[in-house]
Design goal:
alpha/beta; seven-stranded mixed β-sheet; three-stranded antiparallel β-sheet; 42% helix; binds pyridoxal-5'-phosphate
Length: 342
């Protein structure tokens, strides 16, 4: 029986499963800075294996995973290419500028995908006046574009441009398993078009804390050092790595339920006169409630009345489906909303 978690704000709100809590309790521990924690070592090995990469690194969060990866790929003063609404550029507190002293060159994507010609055009020529371009960052699924899953072909198109120009490619794969499940492909098919990947365990995969980074050994060695510098050298971290092992081995297939529930939610909301703004491919539904004359306050109050958390802003919001929300909950949310809209 899944504990209900009627909260549409994000998939970061997910609680650990009973099996995860049990696994934390029983985890074999050691000092991970000395590489002595067998549970962390196991998680890192499993992660690397799943993505077909040489090595893995357990980090505290997605933001830290992206930071240590970007730092490992670059040198002070480099320029990196990112999609203009990417999480690394918009939502990671300017860490690339503060920690890496990096310049960001942004590209307007098409549903989160950067057209290869645009990436190519953004790469700096070898000229004494220019910074060096060293890295392309790709996000899959692309959060702000609506949880859009980039296909292996789209990933390859960016990879080819990066490699033709000797650039690294980092994948912000916070929700890469959502992409793989939605596209019906093995995650390795997406992973092959990246050097390093950041994967969140604490979103749809329901672990309470943490992300993984995977990639070639040399970049992971460097990322590990940066993680230490950023205060992410955790000690008996097996306590939090143990749920992550369950995330990677047991929580991936159920993402299909979240995707199905998001589609049911989107269709139901459309019937109530609410505008759905995105192409619902994974677990995110972006809506605009101005067609029914509601403000964010009306929306938020209505959600509270029927027992849900949601965070409207202006006239819109993002609704995310996840572990703890079942199909019957979506149906009762739509019934409740229907009554309030009248
Ligand atoms: C695409 C993407 N990347 C990275 C992150 C950062 O993850 P964290 O919140 O664990 O730092 C998020 C968080 O929502 C995200 O959506």
């Amino acid at each position: 029986m899944v504990e209900k978690n009627l909260d549409f704000r994000s998939d970061t709100v997910t609680w650990p499963t009973p099996e995860m809590r049990e696994a934390s309790y029983k985890a074999k521990l050691g000092d991970d800075v000395y590489r002595d924690d067998p549970t962390v070592n196991e998680l890192e090995a499993i992660g690397a294996e799943i993505f077909g990469k040489e090595a893995g690194l357990f980090v505290t969060s997605g933001t830290q995973g992206n930071a240590v990866s970007v730092l490992a790929h670059t040198q002070r003063g480099d320029e990196i290419i990112l999609e203009e609404r990417s999480h690394i550029y918009v939502n990671e507190v300017g860490g690339l500028a503060v920690m890496g002293q990096l310049m960001a060159r942004t590209i307007k994507g098409e549903k989160g995908w950067m057209r290869p010609d645009d990436v190519r055009a953004a790469i700096r020529a070898d000229n004494i006046h220019y910074p060096r371009t060293s890295l392309v960052c790709v996000e899959n699924t692309h959060n702000s574009a609506g949880g859009i899953a980039l296909t292996p072909e789209q990933m390859k198109s960016n990879w080819d441009v990066a490699k033709e120009n000797d650039l690294g490619l980092h994948l912000d794969g916070a929700r890469i398993f959502n992409a793989a499940v939605a596209l019906g492909v093995d995650v390795k098919k997406l992973a092959q078009y990246s050097d390093t990947i950041q994967i969140c365990l604490s979103k749809g995969l329901s672990a309470p804390i943490g992300s993984m980074v995977v990639g070639p050994q040399d970049l992971m060695n460097s990322a590990r050092k940066y993680r230490k510098m950023l205060g992410g050298g955790m000690r008996q971290a097996g306590i939090i790595a143990a749920p992550g092992i369950i995330s990677l081995t047991k929580m991936v297939d159920r993402l299909a339920d979240d995707h199905r529930n998001a589609k049911i939610l989107a269709e139901g909301l459309k019937k109530l006169g609410i505008k759905v703004l995105n192409d619902v491919q994974t677990n995110m539904v972006y809506v605009d409630f101005s067609p029914i004359g509601w403000t964010a306050e009306d929306w938020n109050t209505a959600c509270v009345k029927i027992g849900w958390k949601s965070r409207g802003r202006g006239t819109s919001t993002r609704l995310v489906t996840h572990y703890g929300i079942e199909e019957e909950d979506i149906k009762s949310f739509l019934d409740g909303m229907g009554k309030l809209i009248g």
